[in-house]
């Protein structure tokens, strides 16, 4: 077995997005360092007194966990020192933070996805997305650099903090996964060129709001359950409630995930920039699909930093069938 570190792997392939200047290597190095530090803090959070809420709310109106704040501050500080990074936007912040005017890239981060599960030891994660800035180098970045749309991403990925610390990413040339080897302090290639199984083994959603979903979605899921019960190999329910954990399992084992909108809030809850865009690109690169029910997530135009969306992730054939059912009931956002 060849032992290949994340840094070595990126150095061999960085020309895929930016001409082998070394910028991408430096950005991923900062992400991996942040992952190592957050993994360390998570393992000893209960002993260090950093579990629980901080006592403030974020721009989303959600209670900020102490580890949310720690993770967000850590990534912002790491990228503030990176000469290639022009700006930083986080799910936890009201607006973006301009960094180095000479930088050519901006990064969008959900620093600790699923943080409400921290106190009970459920796996959580970090989600990231990188764009090449549109505004002139040498000037401060603007909001337009972050609102380019999902197809403009040059790299995206996630870090899963669980039994192992894993980093998966794509630059549009497949999905590759790395596992942190604590003794060496390096991420080592463990999952090259990941492909999502075409057949779903699992389904992942919380049907507590079933009666608040649009009637067409209710009918689709009712039929799905009926057909699943009659199947020779029925799919099993697996739902963690942490997007990174649910996504990672389904990516490797095959599965359908959804977090739909409701009749009252059709826009959904998940964030387009911080969660939906990067996960959508990853699953498309692995052979699956991502939609808001009828429209590909990557084709939804962004209008604001904290825009929300419904999110459906899974095999292409399954989502095509879903779209046929929902097309007359879910409003499509036009470019």
Task: Describe this entry's structure for a reader.
This protein is an alpha+beta fold and 335 residues long. It has 2 domains: 6-191, Fructose-1,6-Bisphosphatase, Chain A, domain 1; 202-326, 3-Layer(aba) Sandwich (D-Maltodextrin-Binding Protein, domain 2), CATH 3.40.190. The protein has 9 helices and 17 strands. The protein has an 8-stranded mixed β-sheet with strand order 4-3-5-6-7-8-9-10, sandwiched between helices. α1 (6-13) packs antiparallel against α3 (23-43). The N and C termini lie far apart (47 Å). The relative contact order is 0.13.
Notable traits:
335 residues, alpha+beta, Fructose-1,6-Bisphosphatase, Chain A, domain 1, D-Maltodextrin-Binding Protein, domain 2, eight-stranded mixed sheet, five-stranded mixed sheet, 9 helices, 31% helix, 25% strand
What is the topology?
Elements: H1 6-13, H2 15-18, H3 23-43, H4 45-48, E1 53-57, E2 63-65, H5 66-80, E3 85-90, E4 97-98, E5 105-113, E6 124-132, E7 153-161, E8 165-170, E9 175-181, E10 186-191, E11 202-204, H6 215-230, E12 236-237, H7 243-253, E13 255-259, E14 270-271, H8 272-285, E15 289-291, E16 308-309, E17 311-314, H9 316-326
Parallel strand pairs: 3-5, 11-12, 11-13
Antiparallel strand pairs: 1-2, 3-4, 5-6, 6-7, 7-8, 8-9, 9-10, 13-17, 14-16, 15-17
Helix pairs in contact: 1-3, 3-5
Q: What pattern of helices and strands is seen along the backbone?
A: HHHHEEHEEEEEEEEEHEHEEHEEEH
CATH-scheme architecture of the largest domain: 2-Layer Sandwich
What count of helical segments does DSSP give? 9
* Approximate helicity band: 25-40%
- Note the gap between the termini: 47 Å
Structural class: alpha+beta
Strand order of the largest sheet: 4-3-5-6-7-8-9-10
Task: Evaluate the radius of gyration.
Answer: 19 Å
Outline:
globular
CATH topology of the largest domain: Fructose-1,6-Bisphosphatase, Chain A, domain 1
The main β sheet shows up as: 8 strands, mixed
CATH H-level homologous superfamily name of the largest domain: Fructose-1,6-Bisphosphatase, subunit A, domain 1
CATH class of the largest domain: Alpha Beta
Low-confidence stretches: 330-335
- Beta-strand proportion: 15-25%
Q: How many domains?
A: 2
The count of strands amounts to 17
Q: Give the integer mean of the pLDDT values.
A: 90
């Amino acid at each position: 077995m060849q032992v290949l570190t994340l840094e070595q792997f990126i150095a061999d392939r960085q020309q895929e997005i930016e001409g082998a200047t070394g910028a991408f290597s430096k950005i991923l190095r900062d992400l991996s360092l942040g992952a190592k530090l957050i993994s360390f803090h998570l393992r000893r959070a209960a002993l260090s007194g950093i579990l629980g809420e901080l006592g403030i709310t974020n721009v989303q109106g959600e209670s900020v966990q102490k580890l949310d704040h720690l993770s967000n501050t850590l990534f912002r500080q790491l990228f503030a020192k990176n000469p290639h990074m022009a700006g930083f936007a986080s799910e936890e912040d009201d607006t973006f933070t301009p960094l180095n005017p000479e930088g050519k890239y901006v990064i969008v981060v959900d620093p600790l996805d699923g943080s409400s599960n921290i106190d009970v030891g459920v796996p959580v994660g970090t989600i990231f997305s990188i764009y090449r800035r549109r505004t002139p180098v040498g000037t401060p970045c603007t909001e337009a650099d972050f609102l380019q749309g999902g197809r403009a991403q040059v790299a995206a990925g996630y870090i899963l903090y669980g039994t192992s610390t894993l980093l998966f990413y794509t630059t549009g040339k497949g999905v590759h996964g790395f596992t942190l080897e604590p003794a060496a302090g390096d991420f080592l290639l463990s999952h090259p060129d990941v492909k999502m199984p075409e057949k779903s083994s699992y389904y992942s959603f919380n049907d507590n709001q079933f009666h608040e979903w649009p009637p067409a979605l209710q009918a689709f899921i009712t039929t799905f359950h009926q057909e699943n019960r009659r199947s020779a190999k029925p799919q099993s329910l697996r739902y963690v409630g942490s997007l990174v954990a649910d996504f990672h399992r389904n990516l490797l084992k095959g599965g359908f995930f959804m977090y739909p909108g409701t009749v009252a809030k059709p826009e959904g809850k998940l964030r387009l920039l911080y969660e939906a865009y990067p996960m959508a690109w990853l699953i498309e690169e692995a052979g699956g699909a991502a939609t808001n029910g009828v429209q590909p997530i990557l084709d939804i135009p962004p209008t604001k930093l904290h825009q929300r969306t419904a999110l459906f992730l899974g095999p292409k054939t399954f989502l095509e069938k879903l779209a046929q059912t929902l097309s007359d009931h879910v409003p499509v956002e036009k470019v």
